[in-house]
Amino acid sequence: VQLVESGGGLVQPGGSLRLSCAASGFTFSRYTMSWYRQAPGKEREFVASITSTFGLTNYVDSMKGRLTISRDNAKNTVFLQMNSLKPEDTAVYYCRATMSRENDYWGQGTQVTVSS
Fold first, then answer.
1. Could you write out the three-class secondary structure of 56-88?
2. For the sheet containing 77-82, what is the strand order?
3. Which parts of the chain register pLDDT below 50?
């Protein structure tokens, strides 16, 4: 099982980034896919999720209106479009695949830094 995030980097406040998470080694279409983030000195927190069957989405309140999560089951990839980024969005962003307690996988993370 492998989850590989990409698309992070340095962006100015107000800018945008699109994160990707490429999955392999499991049946991607059967898993809820999520993004989490962890800022320095803080606990990891939920950012967004998208369900397997109906593609229902959920977002953290602090970023609602600035995020869009989507998935391409044909390419085994989940995306996170982030707009109007703020310095407080600086964190390592992680991809997570969940189907059950036993089938719960994490990626290694991608750094997002919002700074002028």
1. CEEECHHHCCCEEEEEECCCCEEEEEECCCCHH
2. 2-6, 17-24, 77-82, 67-72
3. none
Tokens at 85, concatenated? 């980024």
The rounded distance, in Å, linking the Cα atoms of 96 and 21 is 9
* CA dist., res. 98 & res. 100, Å (int): 6
Dump the DSSP string for 16-34: -EEEEEEEESS-GGGSEEE
Residues in Cβ contact with 39 at an 8 Å cutoff, skipping those fewer than 6 apart? 88, 90, 91
- As a whole number, the mean pLDDT across the chain is 96
Name residue, tokens 């340095």. 10
